[in-house]
Amino acid sequence: MKHLLTAAELDADTATAVLDTADRLKAALLGREVRKLPTLRGRTVVTMFYENSTRTRVSFEIAGKWMSADVVNVSASGSSVGKGESLRDTALTLAAAGADCVVVRHPASGAAHRLAGWLGADPYGTNTSVVNAGDGMHEHPTQALLDAATLRERLGSLRDRRIGIVGDVLHSRVARSNVALLSTLGAEVVLVAPPTLLPVGVTGWPVTVSHELDAELPALDAVMTLRVQAERMHGLFFPSVREYSIAYGLNQARLGLLPEHAVVLHPGPMLRGMEIAAAVADSPRAAISDQVANGVHVRMAVLYHLLAHREDA
Amino acid sequence: MNLLIRGVRPYGDGDPVDVSVVDGVIAGIGAGLDAGDGEVLDGDGAVLLPGFVDLHTHLREPGREDTETIATGSAAAALGGFTAVFAMANTAPVADNAVVVEHVTRRGREVGLVDVHPVGAVTVGLAGERLAELGTMAAAGVRMFSDDGHCVADPLLMRRALEYATALDVVIAQHAEEPRLTVGAQAHEGEAAARLGLGGWPSSAEEAIVARDCLLARQAGARLHICHVSTEGTAELLRWARARGTRVSSEVTPHHLLLDDSRLATFDPVNKVNPPLRAATDAAALRRALADGVIDCVATDHAPHAAQDKDCEWAAARPGMLGLQTALSVVVETMVRPGLLTWRDVARVMSERPAEIAGLPDQGRPLDVGEPANLVLVDTDAEWTVRGAELASIAANTPYEGMTLPGRVLATVLRGRCTARDGRVAEPTGVFG
C-alpha cells in the first residue's frame, strides 16, 4: 500500500489485513505500562488539517507516537497556508522537509488524490505516503476501517450482516467510505434518510435505500447514525430539527426495535437530541467510545502498512 | 495579392480542383488554373471548407493576459481553422461598454489573424441587475450579447433584454444555469458526482432556464441563442421550441460531444468546466441533436486558465478548457468518422450557421466565384497527438493532453491571406483601425 486515499480502493484482503494488524497492535498494547512500540522509529508523520478536528487528529497523533514515529502537526491557521500558499506548494514543502507520510484533512473532495499526484511527480515526494483523513464529501477511509474494526469486535464477521446508515448521507464522507468498505467486506448496507439528504446518483451504489427507519430497525445488526447539522435546515433539506428528529432520530423507543445483539455507532461529533438521544448514546448498546479507542489501533495499523516495510527502512 | 490553392476538394466532394483568389475574393475554381506571380498553396487533395466561425471564445484580454491575449488567442484560432471568433464579455474590465468592445475590435484588427468580434455584456458588470448599454455597443458593431459565465437569471431582466434587442437586430446568448439550483455545484449531478462527493449540477438547472427563455423569446419575437447546450433534455426543449416557431439557435462544445463525467475520477480539474461534463447518454444525445440540426453549430467555449488555477484541488479550480485548436479534430472524431456528419455538414455547423446566427455577411459563404476567400484546408487523413504546451495559447489546460485525434488544419485563409499554414501562423498585419 503506497497511499490510503479511499476505502473504495481497498480489496477485501487488504482491508482484512489492516484490521488484523489493528487487532494485533491492540493486543500487544493491552496492559502495557509504557504504550510504545519501536516500529516506526525514525519515521516522520505530518498531519495537515485544513478543517477543525478533535478525534481524528488526536487519534493519528497518538497512533504515530505509540509507534515511535516523529509526529508534526500543521494546522491551516498559523502556517503559510494562512498566507495563501497553495495546497500543492504546502505539500511539496512538507515532502522536501522530510515527511515520510502526510495525513491530510481538507474541505475539498479529491484533495488527497491531488496531493498524492503532486508528490508522486516531485523528486522529494516520491516516497511520501498520503493518508486521507477526510476530503470534503468524498471519503474518510480510516473512519470506515475503525467502524469495521468495532463491528468485527462486537459481531464477529461482517459477512451478510445488515448495517443501517442513517442521516445526512449526501454530505457525508463517512457514509461514502462505509458503504464502500462494508460492502467489500460482505455486509449489506441500508441507507435511511429523507430523499433530500441522499445524493441523486445513489442509484449506482451497492445499497438498499429506505425512508422508514422504524421499518428497517428490526432487521439490522448495527445502526450508524450520522451527524446532521442544524444549518442544513437553512439549505431546505428538511423542515425543522423537530421533524427530522421525529422521523430519523435514534431515540429510546427505536433502540427497543433493534435486535438484542445490534450495535449503535456514531462517528462523532454527536448532536445529542438531534440524530441521537442522550440515553441511546450512553447505553451499553452504543459502541461510540470503542470506535474512538479502535481508531487509534486502526491508524497505527495503517501507518504500519504504509511505512514499516519501505526498502529504505 | 493573389493566391492559388492547388488540388482541393470543396466540401470533400468530387475530384480535386484549383481555386484562385484575387484581392481576397474567389476568382476561379477549376482544373489547372495558372498561378501567375502569386503565392501557391498545395492542397494535396485536402478538403476545402469555408473558414470556421466560433461564437464562443474567451480571449482573456483585457485582464488576464497571463493566460491568453488577443494575439495568442488569434493565433490559436487561425491554427484551428477559424476566420472569425467571438470574444466573450467576461474580461476585466467587463465588455459592458463601447470603450472595451472597441478596444477588443481594434486589437483583433492589429493582430489580423482572425476577425475578432467582441460580445457585449447583457448587464452592467455581468451583475444581472440592470441592462448594459446595448444600443451604444450595437452602434460600435456588437452583434451578440451575453453574460456568459453567469446566467441572466432574473426573468424580468431577461424579458426586457430580449425585447430591447429586437429593435437592434442583435442576438442574446444565454448561459443557461439557474443559480439557485447550482449553489455549491462542482460536477454533473449523477452517479460519478455522488461517488466522488462533488456537489451536483443538475440538468434541470440548465433546462429550466432554456424552457423559460424560449417562452420569453417567443413572446418578445426576439432571437435567442443558447450557449453550450449540455443535456439531452435541453435538446428536447429546443426541438419543441423550434417546432412552435421560436427563433432560438444553439451551440454545443466539442468537449460535451466527446467527453463525459467518467473522466472525473482522477479529480484533475483539467476536466472541470461549466456546464460540467455530463453523462455519456447526454453526449450521445448531443451528437444526435447536432446531426439532426436541432443544435445549430459547434462553438468552442475556449477558456484558457493559468496553471495555478488548475493545478489545485477540484473545488478551488476555475472551470473551462482550451478548445480552438482541437475543435475540428474532436468534430471529426465524434461526428464525421461515425458518419453523423458529412464534410458538407461540417461547413454548416462550424461556419455557415454560426455566421448566420451572428449576422456576419462575409463569413460562412458558399465556395463560389465572387465570394470572399475565407477558407480552411483540412487534411482528413492526418492524425496528431495533442500537447498542451505546444498549443498557441499561453495557457495549456487542454483535456485532450496525450490523445491522438484525427483531422488536421493544413491552412487557413482570411480574405485571401494565409493566416496559418502547416502549423505556423502568419506575422501580425500591423494594420490599424
Detailed description of the structure:
The complex is a heterodimer of chains A (313) and B (433). With 313 residues, chain A is an alpha/beta fold. Chain A has eleven helices and nine strands. Chain A has helices at 12-29, 55-66, 87-96, 111-120, 141-155, 173-184, 213-216, 241-248, 252-257, 278-281, 288-307; strands spanning 44-49, 70-75, 101-106, 129-135, 162-166, 188-192, 208-210, 222-225, 263-265. In chain A, the strands form two sheets. Chain A has a five-stranded parallel beta sheet, with helices on one face. In chain A, strands 2-1-3-4 form a four-stranded parallel beta sheet, sandwiched between helices. The longest helix of chain A is centred in the last third of the chain and has 20 residues, at 288-307. In chain B, strands 3-2-1-4-15-16-17-18 form an eight-stranded mixed beta sheet. In chain B, strands 8-9-12-13-14 form a five-stranded parallel beta sheet. A three-stranded parallel beta sheet of chain B has the order 5-6-7. Chain B starts with a strand and ends in an 8-residue tail after the last strand. Chain B has eleven helices and 18 strands. The chains are: A alpha/beta (313), B alpha/beta (433).
Layout of strands and helices, then pairs:
The complex is a heterodimer of chains A (313) and B (433).
Chain A: H1 12-29, E1 44-49, H2 55-66, E2 70-75, H3 87-96, E3 101-106, H4 111-120, E4 129-135, H5 141-155, E5 162-166, H6 173-184, E6 188-192, E7 208-210, H7 213-216, E8 222-225, H8 241-248, H9 252-257, E9 263-265, H10 278-281, H11 288-307
Chain B: E1 2-10, E2 17-22, E3 25-30, E4 39-50, E5 52-57, H1 70-79, E6 82-87, H2 98-111, E7 115-118, H3 134-139, E8 144-146, H4 155-168, E9 171-174, E10 187-188, H5 191-196, E11 200-201, H6 203-220, E12 224-226, H7 232-243, E13 248-252, H8 254-258, H9 280-292, E14 297-298, H10 327-336, H11 343-358, E15 375-385, E16 404-414, E17 417-421, E18 424-425
Observed structural traits:
heterodimer; A: 313 residues; alpha/beta; five-stranded parallel beta sheet; four-stranded parallel beta sheet; 11 helices; 14% strand; B: 433 residues; eight-stranded mixed beta sheet; globular
